[in-house]
Amino acid sequence: MTRYDSWTPEKGALIIGDMAAEGRTALLPILHEIQAGFGHVPAEAVPMIAEALNLTRADVHGVVSFYHDFRETPVAPRVLKLCRAEACQAAGADQVARRVAERTGLACGETSADGALAVEAVYCLGLCATAPSAMLEGPGVEGGRRLGARLGGPRLERLIDEAVR
Amino acid sequence: MSVTIYLPKDAAALALGADEVAAELTRLARMAGRDLNLVRTGSRGLFWLEPMIEVATPAGRIAYGPVEASDVEGLVAAGLFEGGAHPLRLGPPAAIPFLARQTRLTFARTGIVDPASVEDYRAHGGWAGLERALELGPEGIVEEVVQSGLRGRGGAGFPTGVKWRTVAAAKAPQKYIVCNADEGDSGTYADRMIMEGDPFVLIEGMVIAGIAVGATRGYVYLRSEYPHAAAAFALALDEARRAGFLGARIGGSAHDFDIELRMGAGAYVCGEETALLDSIEGKRGQVRAKPPLPAHQGLFGRPTVINNVISLASVPFILAEGAAVYRDFGMGRSRGTMPIQLAGNIRFGGLYETAFGVTLGELVDEIGGGTASGRPVRAVQVGGPLGAYFPRALFDTPFDYEAFTAAGGLIGHGGVVVFDDTVDLRAQARFAMEFCAIESCGKCTPCRIGSTRGVEVIDRIGAGDPKQITLLRDLCETMKFGSLCALGGFAPYPVLSALDHFPEDFGVGAAGSAAAAE
Ligand SMILES: Cc1cc2nc3c(=O)[nH]c(=O)nc-3n(C[C@H](O)[C@H](O)[C@H](O)COP(=O)(O)O)c2cc1C
Ligand code: SF4
Ligand code: FES
Question: Among A42, B134, B259, B456, which residue has the fewest nearby CB atoms (within 10 Å)?
Fold first, then answer.
């Protein structure tokens, strides 16, 4: 199973260097690349980004903490995102969450003891006509990510199988 | 002998196993010695039939669905490659009643064309709007969009032409076109379908907007929950650039225009237009006070057109066919067609593009076929998490901006979410407050604090204290009038509609709730 790359200032500098010329507007694209590469935005990256974009550390930290996607601690290699928004609620999202909890021991917002899998809530994946739905993500997932819709029965079991593998 | 099969690569079709179907088709075609031309399209939006495959035959395309990988062997044995008979055979897709009853102007090509091919787009009428736009020139384009009566499809319903006119009149060294592809509302997926299934129509719409107002740069701000749309759109941008529809001197004209794709980072409020601009600028996605309007001081302080995906994707048709053709559809001040998205607990869930004026009851009961669970429909939420819950008593409400406002709701982005009789409307009202608390940008107190208090008050009602209902109504009033944007300002819609139409779920009779309101 491939995991996230481990952070070094050199690798961080490589990402920042490419994009810093655009100035502050490059902040989200830079954070996305760092998050995608290392599974989180390491504390050490913040002053480097701030300096490259001519911002204060507090400013960069404020942005990192505002957006749900950016994490300050490493995210599990596999994340199972369960949609908990209205269309999925109407179609049985709670039953899906219960079944996932039964098999993984994890409720939304929890990470497994070995740190390999996290289960999270997400608010709409645009699969609302085939609700309830979920997305399994991470470098350990075949193809990077797998979507599941109309979850229940064997389709849900297969998605969980892949999540716990 | 070669055979052409169309199979969606739309995210919902993928979620239901389209890639596994593709692998089986490829394997079995090879075994049968057939040369398979597999075209990955978007979805036609008949999601209860996905994955739906279509085979090219001399008599036109023949559809089959819903197809699972395990069905493919039997299908091939039954003569799939020739359009043979099989229990999953649906016949010509255009004759399927759900599709036959629609008026597809904006979604005319989605599910039909190869979304990666500029040429296929052209072969199906693409780029004709741009051609006419170049003939008309900036003023003529703006006038055409004004005359079409097109209103913003992202939620607020502001006339698109009027917005463009303001930006066109502004004097500035640089202007921008920003496409709002944040599509955060539950129950909505039309933007996603366009970006995955017919991305060039959005690119064409943005290029036309650029020419109309004198902007040379465009941004598409797409939510990070849509990685498949991001990949499809990024590919389309490359293809359009290669074919000369983006970049310098578009189509040999004097106009330059290019588009950059930007990803959001999981914040619902970034769908609000000014928060979105701040996010592109590299800031926290917080709502700006208006004025100044983005049309005067938008992205990087410059005049900016900010429009929803569907608003922009509607423009090529309007230019190609003329404002009057578009305007002739609809009712009252709601002109043209609206891609309505049927979702939730619904039998025939999918995209239904039709002229304004169809009633909510027709949409849910007739077109949508009622619930998927087979139980009675009890409530329908229209317009996303900030939209009202409608009871059956309001099913005669026509789909029209003004009619929905009059009924205490909103159309929003056209999402219709169906619930059966197991729904607990108090829980739904609580969720609306909770969602507002999670997603609040934090700028104003009624939204930031009020939503948290709202959850607590609803919990106390649930614990059997109906006196709290007066408090809840007061709180909603404060949020409605004291919030800077519609996140805090509209959260009362789902809450109060649940309370007004389904008082029994709050432990009070209809009379009790009316008394509490006084
Ligand atoms: C909290 C909030 C979220 C919004 N989310 C979206 C969205 O996801 N997509 C969208 O097009 N408009 C959204 N809007 C509406 C936009 O602010 C704006 O009205 C729209 O992008 C204008 O484009 P249009 O005129 O083409 O509709 C949202 C508004 C608010 C207050
Ligand atoms: S209403 Fe809420 S989201 Fe909107 S500006 Fe105020 S705090 Fe921000
Ligand atoms: S509400 Fe779950 S996918 Fe849209």
Answer: B456
